[in-house]
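Aim 2, interim progress: modelling of the magnesium ion-bound target.
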Amino acid sequence: MTAEERVITTREAINEAIRDEMRRDSSVILLGEDVAGGAGREAEGLADAWGGAFAEYKGLQTEFGSERVLDTPISEIGYLGAAVGAAATGLRPVAELMFVDFIGVCLDPMMNQAAFLRFMSGGRAKVPLTLITHIGAGIGMAAQHSKMLYSFFTHIPGLKVVVPSSAYYAKGLLTAAIRDDDPVVFCIHKLLLGKQQHVPDEAYEFPIGQARIAREGNDLTLIGAALTTATCMEAAEVLVADGVDSEVIDLLSLSPLDEETVLASVRRTGRVVVVDEGFPRCGLATDVASLVADKAFDHLDGPVKKVTAPHAPVPFSRSLETAFMPSATDVREVALQLF
Amino acid sequence: MSMAKARQPSPQPSRKQLLEFYESMALIRAFEERFVALVTQGKLVGTGHLCVGQEAVAAGVCGALEEDDYVTSTHRGHGHCLAKGVDPNEMMAELFGKTTGTSKGKGGSMHIADFRKGMLGANGIVGAGMPIACGAGLTAKLTKSGRVAVSFFGDGAANIGSFHEALNLASVWNLPVVFVCENNRYGEATPVEYALAADHVADRAVAYRMPGVIADGQDVVDVYAKAREAVDHARAGEGPVLLECETYRYYGHFLGDAAGYRTAEEVESFRSRDCLILLAERLRRDHEVGENQLDGIRAEMEARLDEAFAFAEASDDPALDELTTDVYVSYP
Ligand SMILES: Cc1ncc(C[n+]2csc(CCOP(=O)(O)OP(=O)(O)O)c2C)c(N)n1
Ligand SMILES: [Mg+2]
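Predicted structure of the complex, ligand included:
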């Protein structure tokens, strides 16, 4: 197999990005709950037992030691606040929040501290902090472990937000996030972790703030992020049989948002469906829809459409959870209303 | 224990009570093992945080409560629910996501609640139950209902802010709350001796001006005696208590965790002090209860689980319009 054909999981891509940056830059550290596991049991060979609740960090503590790969007590406001302080004083921390839902107990370090320190210091301070967090439904963990919440972070000036849709973009965006001098929230959907894709061996950055055209088309623009990019791709294939040629945009960054790529596509197709697994009120889909309504109104052949989760908590029951998440069938149905 | 006023020493549990503890612990064990079996056989998809090994804490503490006392639980909550009297049929149906479940299939393992039984909810957020228990204690205090709130939490949860805020609050407001720490030596894959800057969770009680007590969490009689005293103290208006129960979970953090952060010898050493074995020994020694009788209780509990499984299996999945019901009391 040539290097070009190398296929790895999103989980492995995340591991590589952190590993490469830790090798390159000794100020990069990793901290979070059970990012290694078995803390303090190096001598018995029981350390690094987990490598994170989702096992992305396996081997990092073994390579870099427990000074740079730190397991934390269950003290999110403590270690996230410490990550902000460390970032402001010369380290480049990568902190993990296991499930984005837990931001409820530690929003302040991100919202009032990391996000505003640069501004409040008149541009003198910088906070090169990366927060990795897991988003999304689909694994049967119900209301308190399945939300998206990326729009929370996107709402806050001072934070950058990236949302990879696959292994390739996970590695490129995480590398860019770690090298970035601003706080970046890296939201990874749990259902993407095991998915495989070709990923180059060497370190590379995918630029923050750049969307991509995942599929070219002329009749309709489908816009997705994280898992809904795949939903849009699936819907686009189905819509071929309906005679609809869809373009699919994968947002990848929510803040900054690549407005130009979105607007250029919509101006050409005249129709748009924004697909978002998040809650519908004040969310990502609403935000992108308002952008289109504001700046591409004259080019539209129909209303800006949205497919989102319902205004309801994520349910446990499998049948309800499946219905909760936007599906290609939902997207097709809404898309056809535009023709 | 530096409980404020002298009171009657807790009565030794009677033979009848001990048999009830045995039944309660055997039910919890059977429930958890049935869950494992169903997942292993592919009859149930999913995972959960099992409390096998910790049954004496749930049984002993809830054994010291009245039916209308409050309990807040954790992600590892099946035992607390069962010991508080939640119906195993409804719990099993909840694990299957069925309409007949405690939460109509909407909550799942981590969100089992039954307000009819004072069970204010398992919780997916570490530490979240402790302030909620303070609120239930405040209700009890203001309405003079005489109820007590018990909040179960883990050793790992002793390091989250809500623990410290809740203990302080309960103390300054003199609330009838008993904080019960189930110290099973791990928070996920992290050993307690790494994460906790104290020798014992109970040591922290002094910082919040309340009694801190340690119980042998494998011995239901010790748990019961100390819980009884703590609950009486809280109910008498003498304020909160922190009770730490030293215990162990036999399974990993969740079903499927290989638990590579601990040794097989360690697991074995705790298994040899299993709560059911210890209580069986006591019943045989002090109360002449025969092995047959205990076998009979365990068989009864298995039959109870057969019934729960049949109930869950025969129940319906929620209709799709249930997605948006129960979100509010009213919402135009
Ligand atoms: C606020 C928050 N942080 C992290 C988690 C992830 N998590 C779930 S259980 C757990 C360990 C809890 O340990 P402990 O309190 O000792 O309870 P145990 O699992 O041992 O019963 C962690 C870290 C969570 N659910 N909520
Ligand atoms: Mg624990």
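The radius of gyration of chain A is 20 Å. The pocket of magnesium ion (ligand 2) is lined by residues B 154-156, 184, 186-187 (CB under 6 Å).
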